[in-house]
Amino acid sequence: MGLFGFGKKKEEKTASCCCSCSSGVVEQAISECCEPEIKGVCCIKVLGAGCKACHEQYDNVKDAVNNLGLSIEVEYITDMVKVMEYGVMSMPAIVVNEKVISFGKVMKTAEVEKLLQKYGA
Q: Would you give the end-to-end CA distance of the chain in angstroms?
């Protein structure tokens, strides 16, 4: 008997990748099905509810990617089921290589560029 989840095996979390597959854990998904890394970055996503702030964040991320000379397509996700898979409660959020790097505020293009450069972009 597992009281409050004690004594139960932890389940491996699955997440979808940029190619929309959902097989395997996040690390496996990144190595098996993502686009090839370009300067350390393979997937960039903006999570949002479709509001003005979320659209602004999406545009800022696209501008930052273009300014850095990356040929990566930025994905804009508004499906709340997919957003909740990342555990994000406040939007907009930015996901790079399946890791949430920012949430709850609209970042300017220069701020996004600095974040992406931390990943080698």
A: 49
Strands of the 44-47 sheet, one edge to the other: 74-77, 44-47, 93-96, 99-103
- Asked whether residue 6 is domain-assigned, the answer is no
pLDDT digits (tens, 9 = 90+) for 42-78: 889 999 999 999 999 999 999 999 999 988 899 999 9
Can you read off the two tokens belonging to residue 109?
A: 């293009």
In a domain, 72, yes or no: yes
Report strand pairing: 74-77 vs 44-47.
parallel
Provide the pLDDT for residue 41: 75
What's the CA gap between 81 and 106, in Å, rounded?
22
Do 44 and 90 touch, CB atoms closer than 8 A?
no
Per-residue pLDDT, 103: 93
What percentage of the chain exceeds 70 in pLDDT? 64
Would 10 be classed as within a structural domain? no
Check which CATH number belongs to the domain holding 49 and give it.
3.40.30.10
CA nearest 43: which of 51, 33, 53?
33
Kindly state whether residue 14 falls inside one of the protein's structural domains: no
